[in-house]
């Protein structure tokens, strides 16, 4: 693969010279778009993976913290409150923690849609070429 040429003044080049360079310029554009698409897919996969891990952490907290930590706190709170009220307060607190991790996962997935999709960049390039012709 040839490296893209440096920018230079083309004001004195003939029409045939400029037309002869069009295939190379188009090839360079296509290579750049493919590289941008690869980078976008890599970053999208990374964000999706992090979002999945955050959801798994939320499920882990919900599943394991209820019997272990919940019993300890319920026993402690039951010395001041009735047992049923102690259990209800602990459940509500753990539900808030679970929702926090789930929200962090959702925010990470939303980050996927904010990135510029390389396919839309290619479509924009094609539209601009059509408008010029």
Automatic annotation (TrEMBL):
Keyword Transmembrane helix set for record: yes
Residues spanning the membrane: 52-77, 83-107
Keywords in alphabetical order: Membrane, Transmembrane, Transmembrane helix
InterPro entries: Phage_holin_3_6 (IPR009937)
Domain of life: Bacteria
Pfam families, sorted: Phage_holin_3_6
Name this protein carries in UniProt: Phage holin family protein
Native source organism of the sequence: Microbacterium schleiferi
